[in-house]
Amino acid sequence: MPVDSPEKYKRINVLVRTDQYETVAKAGLNMSGLMRGLLDDHFSDEKIVFSVSARVKKVYQHVISNLGAEDKDLETYFLQALDQYLAEKTRQIETLRKTIKS
After folding, report:
1. What is the pLDDT of residue 4?
2. Second label for 65, Cα 20 to 30 Å away, from 44, 59, 75, 98?
3. Is this model's pTM higher than 0.70 or not?
4. Distance between the two ends of the chain, CA-based, in angstroms?
């Protein structure tokens, strides 16, 4: 934490599991910086975080790191996927409603 930094910091004590600590250390990451970034992501008005399979994560990382893509470039495709998901759910609900009316 730079002494002449314009940002104000608050020192806290955080407990993490040993495996989490070792993973961060092996990756050569700064725990404070990592946690600040994760908190910013979690509470951001413009970011979402969701879990995917290891295979999807690997493909995503490849696309982002090798093709010059950014998350914002994927937004249109994400909205299309959500629209398709909602359309499928709507079909399922309509099918269920038909069984109720029968």
Report:
1. 60
2. 44
3. no
4. 67
